[in-house]
Amino acid sequence: MxxxxxxxxxxxxxxxxDVVEFDVTSMREYFERGxxxxxxxxxxxxxxxxxxxxxxxxxxxxxxxxxREHHEDLVRVDWSHPVNKGIVFFQNVDAIIGPEDAIxxxxxxxxxxxxxxxxxxxxxxxxxFFTAEQAVEHIAGYLIFNDITARDIQRREMQSGxxxxxxxxxxxCPIGPYIVTADEIGDPxxxxxxxxxxxxxxxxxxxxxxxxxxxxxxxxxxxxxYSAGDLITTGTIAGVAASTDxxxxxxxxxxxxxEAEIEGxxxxxxxxxxxxxxxxxxxxxxxxxx
Length: 290
What we know:
- The protein is an alpha+beta fold.
- The protein contains seven helices and 18 strands.
- Strands 1, 2, 3, 4, 5, 6, 7, 10, 11, 13 and 16 form an eleven-stranded mixed β-sheet that branches. The chain has a five-stranded mixed β-sheet with strand order 8-18-17-14-15.
- The longest helix is centred in the N-terminal third of the chain and has 9 residues, at 68-76.
């Protein structure tokens, strides 16, 4: 199934050209009830609803460095720090936006706004301390994640060996356009991935190039305790703006349209807008203490 949150927080599934509504108050509740929910009997034309971020999880586990090609790409351009596998941190769920929502460029904070296409795993069953073999039972589905990153902030953070602020700013967490249940994805380790900016292909790879398999990754995070509906990201692929020969020609700017696509999971489209376009004022001064 393709599961969606739409309009003012309604939850349902896509059925050809329609959306069939579920009798639940949120997508998290859908997974907390193990998908055992009733339909309300209401159907909506897909073309007439507004898709939202499909879920706001209780916890959002972020994994970096799982695609070796991303690390090698940054080494080639002498990026400030290595991005080896095993980097784990929590993403800010309040920064989540959905398909067609605007990424707001905070020019008071950054001049180096980058994109990172990633696959995200949806946890369907709570649990902790389980093996990779058991992890399959906890994987409910998949969606697309675009890990928007302020590279100038990230470089400062990485001097201490960890980063979070650079990726957790308001609107920096686009996910969607829907959740595809695991039964509809044949082999999640063989999905084509592509990110485009204004139609220009910037990132292109395949999930087969992950260093760590999805069951291993899900099991690895399990000591941190899963709730139903939690999300785990799997790291980005080569081709981020920071790894190009001229990063400032490729960093995102207001007016850019970013399309993140993964085979079978749809296209997550977001436009970058200025602070003034989003809020009607100039960005407020940013406090600095570093």
